[in-house]
Amino acid sequence: MIKYFHFLQKLGFFMALFIVNVNAIQAQTTAGNASFNFLSLPYSAKATSLGGLNISSMGSDLGLAMYTPSLLTNEMNGQLYVGVKPYFAGIQQYDVFGVKQWEKENITTGWGVHFLDYGTIPMTDMAGNELGTMRPNDYMIQFSAATKYIENFRIGSALKFIKSNYGMYKSSGLAMDIGLTYASPNHLSQASILVKNVGTQLSSSGTKQELPFNLILGWSKKLALAPIQFSVTADRLSVWNRSYFDPQYADAFGINPASSLQNLFNHLTLGTELYIGEQVDLNLGYHFIRRYDLNVYNQSNGLNGFSAGLGLKMDKLRIQYGNSFFQTNVYHHFSLTYQLLK
After folding, report:
1. What pTM was computed for the model?
2. How far, in Å, CA of 96 to CA of 321, rounded?
3. In angstroms, rounded to a whole number, what is the distance separating the alpha carbons of residues 97 and 44?
C-alpha cells in the first residue's frame, strides 16, 4: 500500500506539469513553419557528434539528459554541464544545466538555459539608412524532473519558458517535453520515446505561430563482447514527407520529389560510439535529412550529413567535442560536465 501511495505521488507530480499545458495541446505544428525553431538544435556536443539527435544513448551524459528528461538519473546528482557552439558570423550557442537528486522523494530534478546570441546587427530603414544597432537573441529556461516509473522504466518531463528578442519584435512561449525510457535488465539496450514542445506562444509581435512539435523514438544497443554502442533515432514521426521541394526548381533541373524510401530514411539519424578503455569514446553520426536538404544538384557535396566527436572522462570532469559538416563548413561543439557535489 505504501509503495502504491508513493507511485501515485510521482504520477501526480508529472500530471500536474502536464495540466499546465493541456489547454495548449492543439498549438503544435506537424508541417511547415514554426516559431522558436532554435529549440530543435542539439544542446550537447555528444548529440552533435551522433548526428545531431539522440534520445537513447547509454552512458549518463548530462547534455543528452537536458534534451531528453527521462535520461536524468541519480548518478547525475551534483553535476553541472556547460556547452558552447560557435556558428558563422559570430553567432554563439550556450547551454548550462545542473542536477539535484531528492533521495526521499526519489526524484531527480534539473534546471537549464539554452541561449543563442546572434551578435550585434545594424538596424536600417527601407532605404538602407542605419538607425542604430540591435542584439537579437533566443533563449529557453527549463526545469526538468525524472523518476523511476516501474521496473526498468524512467519517466521524465521538462517545463520550458521560451523568449525571442529581435529588436522591436519580441515573442514568448511556454512548452513541455515528456519522455519515457526503458533500460533492459542486462544493460545492453535502451529505448526512449519523447514528445517535444507541447505548448503555445504567450505573446507575439504579429500572428501567433505554432511551436516545433516533435515526436521522437530512439533505440541504442551495446555489443556484449565489443566496446561499441549503436543508436538509431527517428524523429518528426507526425509527418511523413518532411523534405523541402520546390516544383519550379525541380522542373528546371529535372529533379524528382523524394521517393517513399527516401521519405522513410529522412526520419532517421544513426550514431555509433566506440569506447577506448573507460576514459575515451569516439563518436560518429549520420543525419539523412540534413544530407538530403543540403546536397546541391550536380555538385560535389562532400560530407554533408556526417558528424564525429570525441569524449574524455576524468575523475570529476568530462570533456566532450563534436562537429558536423555542412557543405564545405565544419561546425564545432564543446562541452564540459563537472561533478560539483557527490
Report:
1. 0.86
2. 16
3. 10
Instruction: Determine the Cα–Cα distance for residues 171 and 91; give it in Å rounded to an integer.
Output: 20
**In 292-322, which positions are buried (b, 16+ CB within 10 angstroms) versus exposed (e)?**
beeeeeeeeebbbbbbbbbbebeeeebebbb
Cell of 172: 514568448
122 by Cβ neighbours in 10 Å (0-12 / 13-18 / 19+) ranks as: exposed
**Rounded CA gap, 182 and 149, in Å?**
10
- End-to-end C-alpha distance for the chain, whole angstroms: 32
Instruction: Give the integer Cα–Cα distance in Å for 44 and 93.
Output: 10
Longest dimension (CA), the chain: 73
Taken in order 147, 231, 240, 287, the sign of the CA dihedral is positive
Amino acid at 160: K
Write out the chain's pLDDT in tens, 342 residues: 444 345 444 544 554 444 444 444 444 454 456 789 999 999 999 999 999 999 999 988 999 999 999 999 999 999 999 999 998 888 999 999 999 999 888 899 999 999 999 998 888 888 888 888 889 999 999 999 999 988 899 999 999 999 999 888 899 999 999 999 999 999 999 999 999 999 999 988 777 888 999 999 999 999 999 999 999 999 999 888 877 777 776 666 667 777 888 888 999 999 999 999 889 999 999 999 888 888 776 666 778 889 999 999 998 999 999 999 887 778 899 999 999 876
339 DSSP assignment:
E
Q: Give the whole-angstrom CA distance, residue 272 versus residue 226.
A: 13
Q: Are 71 and 148 in contact (CB under 8 A)?
A: no
| Cα separation, 303 vs 286, whole angstroms | 10
Task: List the grid coordinates of 118.
Answer: 546572434
* Residues contacting 327, CB < 8 A, separation 6+: 294, 296, 301, 302, 304
**Do the beta carbons of residue 139 and residue 123 sit within 8 Å?**
no
> What are the grid coordinates assigned to 141, written together?
529556461
